Each structure stands twice: as C-alpha cells, then as structure tokens.
C-alpha cells in the first residue's frame, strides 16, 4: 500500500463529509471530496484514486448510476456507504461492481479497517520476509535472525510463528494451531501454550507481537 | 340441508358405480325373464288336458274323431281297451292328465272308465328349429339392446359429467395461482354456476394478493426512507463523537460513545422489527458468516475500546455461507455482541466454527453472567410479546431470537467456562 493512499469521498451530507475527512486524514489517507454525483463520475474517470467511498443517495446522479458509468471503464475499488441496508441495495451495489457495502451509521475504525483491507488486496505479492523489531523472519528459508544471528527456533516453534504471522491481526484458536501446526489434538491447548511460551522467550522483546486473546487463543500484531 | 350421516356417506363416483350395477342387475333380470319365457315356450308345454266337450264330440263319430290336430297339440281319443293305452293309466284317476313316465309333452288322460273315446292321448309338438332359434335370438336381442342402451347412456351422460367435475376439481387446486384455467363450459347449468363461482374466487384472491404485495412494497419503501432519514444524521453524529474521542478522550466522551452506539442499534432494531412484523422473510439472501463476524468485530471494537473492553473474533480461513437476509442477520449477531460489550467484563470473544453438519457461533464474555431464571427469560423473549424499548437487552434479544427462529437455527443462552455469559448459535450452511 502506498504511503498516503488517495481516497475520493462521494457524499452530499456536509456533516458526514466533515467526519470522514477528519477521521480518514487522521489515519494518514489523502482525501478528496465530491458532493455531486455527476462531478464524482467525472473525477473517477479522469483522476487516479486508490479507492472511492460512495454514498448512494446523491443529487444529479445516484450512486448506482456512478457505479454503472465508471466501473465499466476504470478499475478502482468502490466501497458503498449507505443508510439503505436492504438486501436489494446491497445486491445491486455488488452487481454493479462495488467491493464492499458499509451501512450507516458506521464506526471509523470499522471503515478504516475495511479500506486498508481493500487496498492491501491490490498490492503485489506480499513479501515473505517479515521484519519484527530487530528480528527478521524469512518465511521461505524458515529462519529467524536477530542482527544476522539465527535464534535457533525448533521446527514446531517456527511453524507456530509462521502460522500466526501469515494471519496478522486475526485471532487464531489454540485448536486451529494444534491441528495445523502440531498435527494432533490430545491435550492440545496446554501443548500449544507451552510452545508459544518457548517461542516468546526465544524472540525476546519481539515476542510481545504474539498477543494472547481471551476466549480464543493468540493473535500476531505488528506495530505500525 | 341436513348432512348425510357418515356411515351412509358415499362419493359421487360410488353412487354412479352403484347405479351402473343396479342397471346391470335390471338388465340381467330382463334377460333372465326373456330366457325363461323362451325356455317355457320352447321346452315346456302349457298345462293341457282333454275336456268333456271333446269326448262328447268324439262319441258322435268315434272313427272320424279319433285324431284331431290343434295348433301345437295332437289329440287322439281312444277306446278304453285300445292296445295303445299304457298300463299305468289304469291307476290314474279320471280327468287327470299325466305325462307318460320318462316323457315330456306325451300326455294321457282317462275320460271314462270304459267305452269309446274313454282315453285321451295328447302330444305337445315342440316348435321347429327355426322357431326355437327365433325365440332364443329374441332373448339375446333384448339383452344386447339393454346393454347397448346402458353403455350409450353412460357415455353420453355420465362420462361428460365426470369430465366436467374433474376439471372443476383440478381448478380448485390452482385457485389463486398463475396456472389457473377457468373450468366454466358456459352451458348455463349448475356445474357452470359452480365454475363461475370458482372464477370469481380466483379473481378475488389474485386482486387481494396484488394489493398485499403493493402495500408491502409501499411499506418497505416508507421504512427505508425513514431509516435513511434517521441514519444519515446519526452517521454524522457517530463520526463526530469519534473525532471528539480522538481529540479529547474522557469519561463524558465514553458515555456519549456508548449512548450513540445504543441509539444506532435502536434505530436499526426498530427498523428490522417493523420489517419482521410485516412479513419479511429472514431466509432470503446468502451471507458469508466469516465476513459478517469480522465486520461485527470491527464495529464493536470501537465501542469496546471506549469502554476498555477487548473484542476479538476467530473465524475459519474460508467463507461460511448461510441462507439469510444480510442486514437482518448482521443486526441479530450484532445485538448479541453489543450486549456482551455493554454488560460483560473486560473481554468479548466471538468464535465461528464450521463442521460437516453446519456452523456454530459462540459469543462469550468474562462478566458476571446471569442467573438461570434470567437466562430462561432471554431465551423466551420475542418482540411480538415484549417490545421493550428501555435500557435493557429487550428489543435486541427479541429480534435475535425472532431471526434465529425464522431461520430454523438454534440459540442457547448460558454460562461460559469462565463464569461469564455465552450465547451459542448453530445452524446449517449452504453450498
């Protein structure tokens, strides 16, 4: 994802526009606004945006018409923002090419997470080299080094780290880890906990990236 | 009109069959009568005997009167001592005609104890073969005629009647449907009147259904407009509160965040409750539960962060498709997570799992949980019975229960392993 992705907000309600501008800019996005449907359609075709947030109820041209006109010609992910949550509105949005549908009112965190997810999907193949603080995790070579020195993870410890690191931000159940990494289920929760504990020790301060999630298991979180 | 007692109730087909059987019995009786008549005429002789007048006429000229022919009867009057007189006749009383033993139609009768013309010999002559054939043929002809008339009358009257009744019966099954075809033959009789009545019922049902669909669509449109009018300013309020929370966090902002989250849920719950009350089918549509859970997690992470509650989810690595109306299902699951975030402890976990038979979805918190009586009350809550709009979990739980019931899924309110609350949902997945 580029440093400051360029987002076009297509919305005619001034209060909502002000809230979106403040929230998205705070998250590091480069935001522009179109408050009229016809203007939005023209700008989508003429300018290069990384993503469009599109309201459906607009003056002069509806969100559906914009989708129909623009998406046939440009490839830009469009997330529909709408106070209409009926099935028909969702289905029509997706049928016209929208990639996501967020019903109003929404929380900024939710919207930002969905924006980041859609932008990440457009990026090239993810790098199999993961930088974790002072550590470098090579998912292909199956090594973890700090300042060039191998930390000596066992095969199972590396598998646990790789499984979690390949799902950043996603909570993974102990049972899933056991099934996919350890290959057996008997007494698996305690065995998993034991392996994670040893892994954290070997990673040192970077072990804090492996968070315990109550009621579920673990999650890999890398500080932005 | 009194109803026929059930013991004697017969279908019209049974009655027609009974009538046909009776007709057949009558035909058989007629044929039997004909044949009996024929047999009697052909095979049996009528009761005959010589009379006193015959003897008197014979006595005038015994030689000339010896043999007389009368239609099918040949009469001989013989003297008592004639050699042709059979011996058995001596024991027979006077004026009693008897058949000669072993014969039929060979009759002897003693008219006097002795003298000329004392014994009568009567011989019944059977009709010839042609006549016999004529009589038998006549009987058969009667039988065939009755049979032909019976079959023809059945084909001409009963079969068309049955066909019309069958058309009316078939039309009854299709009343109100697009495939309905009028069974009216326009013959102006009772069956036509019934068919015309059926046509009228069909037209009324179609009109009523069209009216219902139109009202439903108008209501959906009206609800959508109201929801839109409420959600738009609510959306900007939510964004403003979050902006305030980012710039000036504090207890007041946390309270405002909680209230605006409650207000958002309330508006959506009221909208969905009205849609459900007016016949919305919760099963229309298809939803990826994996994506839905992730969306709900994101939404309530914001509220959770404001209240110091951690909200996390675990989902399979692949889509989990279920048949459900997306907005309704998201509201139903969202209500459960919202309640856990508001009333639980410091952690909320949403766990989606999928097996061969279907999915399970557990929403757990580490709060204080609820007593058994309160858990039972939650499970029984529906918005048709209790449209609570207070600060309790009322409407949200009621909508969740209603949606789950309509989808044919199962929901259970219980205690988690850590003592908090656990809401368990399970249901089938679709391809």
Largest Cβ-defined interface: A-B, 39 and 51 residues
Gross geometry of chain A: elongated
SS field, number of helical segments of chain A = 8
pLDDT under 50 segments of chain A (min length 5)? none
Give a quick account of the main beta sheet of chain B: strands, pairing sense, barrel closure. 5 strands, antiparallel
Largest sheet of chain A: 5 strands, parallel
Q: What is the CATH T-level topology of the largest domain in chain A?
A: Rossmann fold
Strand order of the largest sheet of chain B: 1-2-5-4-3
Rg of chain B, rounded, reads 51 Å
Head-to-tail CA distance between termini of chain B: 57 Å
Average pLDDT reading of chain A: 86
Overall outline of chain B: rod-shaped
Task: Report, as a whole number of angstroms, the end-to-end distance of chain A.
Answer: 13 Å
CATH homology superfamily name of the largest domain in chain B: Histidine kinase-like ATPase, C-terminal domain
Q: What is the CA-atom radius of gyration of chain A, in angstroms?
A: 22 Å
* CATH superfamily caption of the largest domain in chain A: Response regulator
Number of beta strands of chain A: 12
N-to-C order of helices and strands of chain B: HHEEEEEHHHEHEEHEEHHEE
Tell me, what is the CATH class of the largest domain in chain A?
A: Alpha Beta
Number of domains of chain A: 2
Number of strands of chain B: 12
């Amino acid at each position: 994802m580029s440093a400051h992705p360029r987002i076009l907000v297509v919305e005619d309600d001034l209060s909502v526009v002000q809230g979106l501008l403040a929230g998205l800019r705070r998250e590091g996005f480069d935001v522009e606004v179109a408050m009229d449907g016809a203007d939005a359609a023209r700008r989508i075709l003429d300018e290069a945006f990384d993503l469009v947030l599109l309201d459906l109820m607009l003056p002069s041209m509806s969100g559906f018409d914009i989708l129909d006109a623009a998406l046939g010609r440009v490839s830009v992910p469009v997330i529909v923002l709408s106070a209409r949550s009926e099935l028909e509105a969702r289905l029509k949005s997706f049928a016209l090419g929208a990639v996501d549908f967020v019903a109003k009112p929404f929380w900024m965190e939710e919207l930002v997470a969905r924006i980041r997810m859609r932008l990440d999907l457009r990026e090239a193949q993810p790098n199999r080299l993961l930088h974790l603080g002072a550590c470098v995790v090579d998912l292909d070579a199956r090594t973890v080094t700090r300042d060039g020195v191998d930390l000596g993870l066992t095969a199972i410890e590396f598998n646990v780290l790789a499984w979690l690191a390949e799902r950043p931000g996603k909570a993974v159940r102990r049972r899933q880890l056991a099934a996919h990494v350890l290959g057996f289920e008997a007494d698996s929760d305690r065995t998993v906990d034991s392996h994670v504990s040893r892994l954290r020790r070997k990673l040192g301060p970077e072990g804090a990236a492996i968070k315990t999630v109550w009621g579920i298991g673990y999650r890999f979180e890398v500080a932005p | 009109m009194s109803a026929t007692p059930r013991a004697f109730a017969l279908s019209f087909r049974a009655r027609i069959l009974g009538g046909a059987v009776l007709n057949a019995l009558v035909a058989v009786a007629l044929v039997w009568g004909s044949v009996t008549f024929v047999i009697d005429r052909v095979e049996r002789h009528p009761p005959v005997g010589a009379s006193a007048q015959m003897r008197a006429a014979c006595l005038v000229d015994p030689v000339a009167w010896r043999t007389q022919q009368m239609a099918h009867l040949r009469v001989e009057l013989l003297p008592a001592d004639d050699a042709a007189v059979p011996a058995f006749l001596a024991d027979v009383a006077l004026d009693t005609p008897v058949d000669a033993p072993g014969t039929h139609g060979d009759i002897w009768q003693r008219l006097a104890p002795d003298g000329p013309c004392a014994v009568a010999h009567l011989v019944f002559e059977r009709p010839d073969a042609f006549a016999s054939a004529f009589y038998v043929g006549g009987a058969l002809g009667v039988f065939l005629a009755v049979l032909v008339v019976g079959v023809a009358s059945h084909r001409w009257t009963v079969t068309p009647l049955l066909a019309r009744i069958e058309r009316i019966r078939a039309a009854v099954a299709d009343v109100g449907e697009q495939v309905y075809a009028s069974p009216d033959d326009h013959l102006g009789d009772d069956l036509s009147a019934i068919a015309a009545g059926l046509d009228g019922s069909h037209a009324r049902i179609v009109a009523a259904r069209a009216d219902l669909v139109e009202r439903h669509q108008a209501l959906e449109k009206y609800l959508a407009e109201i929801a839109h009018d409420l959600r738009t300013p609510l959306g900007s309020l939510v964004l403003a509160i979050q902006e305030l929370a980012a710039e000036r966090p504090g207890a007041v902002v946390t309270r405002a965040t909680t209230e605006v989250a409650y207000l958002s849920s309330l508006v959506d719950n009221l909208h969905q409750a009205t849609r459900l009350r007016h016949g919305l089918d919760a099963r229309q549509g298809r939803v990826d539960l994996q994506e839905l859970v992730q969306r709900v997690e994101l939404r309530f992470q914001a509220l959770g962060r404001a209240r110091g509650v951690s909200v996390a989810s675990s989902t399979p690595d692949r889509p989990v498709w279920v048949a459900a109306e997306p907005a309704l299902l998201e509201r139903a699951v969202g209500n459960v997570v919202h309640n856990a975030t508001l009333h639980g402890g410091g952690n909320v976990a949403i766990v989606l799992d999928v097996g061969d038979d279907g999915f399970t979805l557990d929403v757990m918190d580490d709060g204080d949980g609820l007593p058994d009586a309160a858990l039972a009350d939650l499970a029984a809550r529906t918005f048709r019975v209790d449209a609570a709009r207070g600060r309790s979990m009322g409407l949200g739980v009621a909508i969740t229960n209603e949606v789950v019931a309509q989808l044919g899924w199962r929901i259970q309110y219980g205690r988690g392993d850590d003592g908090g609350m656990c809401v368990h949902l399970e249901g089938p997945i679709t391809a």
